[in-house]
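FORM 7B: Structural annotation worksheet

SECTION A. Query
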Amino acid sequence: MKKISMLLLSAVLMCGLASPLLAFDVGNTECIAPANPGGGWDFTCRQVGKALYDLKLVPGPMQVTNMPGAGGGVAYGYVISKRSEDANLLVAASTSTTTRLAQDKFPGMDKDMVRWVGALGADYGIIAVGKDSPFKNLNDFIEALKKDPSQVAIGGGSAVGGWDHFKVLIAAKAAGVKNLNKVKYIAFQGGGEAITQVLGGHIQAYTGDVSEVQGHLESGGIRILAVLADERLPGAMSEIPTAVEQGVDAVCPNWRGFYMAKNISDDAYNYWADSLDTLYKSAEWKQIMTDNGLMPFFKKGPDFDAFVNKQVTDIRELSKELGIIK
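SECTION B. Predicted structure
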């Protein structure tokens, strides 16, 4: 009798130990890229899917489905209406996603209709000027904006109210600049066109991403006044100060990450968050980041959800201030 009791106890303990591991059994996985092949979201799905399989974090190759439309809105609505309980589905997202959500570009949908699982890399925002600019540091630039924001022409590759526009406004607001709606932002077809205008002296500053200016840094054509990151970036960028260290609390990563369906279990959510954590720390992912110009940035689970909430709130407030939304 005692022997049977011990066997039963052992079985109970084994089941208790095993249950967390068996709480979510990952199956055939899929990643939706809310755009045509070749863009940032497509890159995110394909590279992450391959790496997860190589690291044996998923049982088979991840299917990638391209679903363009409405700047990500088609995919967002599809997941909410058709795949709301699919725990094997990841959807690529970025700061473009949160910007559109903040500006109500996905009608009838909001950030709380999905679960934000993680981000594992970013292209950080910058504020740059021509090599001969009178602005020697970020504070020079900010003081000019405080004196008369309409007299400093700033160019970027997004539309008015887009992410490039908001990078400089987030920095200006953090530094106490008033009348943000008078900041003179000029929208160009892309970052390259805006940089050309800075190099030619036609505008005073450029707002964009690190990846867009690296070649011009090497040639000495422009100077970066501030990187909009928590801390200095590695490698050649380590000599360039952040806005934070210059007293301006502005951090603007164009992150690459994922959301998932709203009605998945916590076990499934935690599995994917931990899998992205494992992936981010791997040598494979570090090489992918190096090869593709991604900078360090990682958040998962509740921390990432809180980050998304703050980013949406900040962009919404600025959008209201500019009259983009009511």
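SECTION C. Observations
Residues 33 and 42 are 5 Å apart (CA to CA). The chain has two domains: 27-122+253-322, 124-246.

SECTION D. Sign-off
Analyst initials: ____
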